[in-house]
Give the backbone structure.
Amino acid sequence: MKRFGFFWMMAACIATAALSSCIDTSDETKEVGYTLTEAQQKQCALAVMGNYEGQLLYLKTAAAEKPDTLKQQTWSIANDTVLTIHDFPLSTLAGYANSEKVKTALEEAEPIDIEAHLYYQQLTPSIGFYVAGQPSYLTLHIDDTTTRALLVFYISYAGYYSSGAYWAEARQMQMQLLVAGVYADGSSSSMLTGSPMLVWSQRYE
């Protein structure tokens, strides 16, 4: 991972900002799986609720040294802690395909919406949260055949987390998702080699 340098360092920084106060032994923390009270979780949800536009950073291949960037990416967060990433470009995963046919299919595939659930872990100095990406169906055209497949995400992998942070004063959000794989219906083998990391970054001007 040394060759990834800045990209992986940025991912580690997001995780640190998001989860720096996850260990909390106070008597006020009684919710299983959380480090915040119910009232604090609601405060976080209200603070981050809204529509966002920013950029998507990703490594085209596992050997890439610098991330590529796609601008005008949008996502929204509802009051019930549901995150929706709109029109996610599956072409960003093409460089990890396990064959040229899958690579072409991902490059030509229609964008999909991704839903995730947010689990808030800290309130200050930034609002930190885990991102539990939900399995998302997609359609690939391989050898003149329509293949239904499932895009799956990790919560954590190799020391990294699907997580995010929101800085209220700066009005800035960053988050990342770890891709576990793309699986055709009925298959237990991923069409991807490796586990791509996707980073969304947003700042209001």
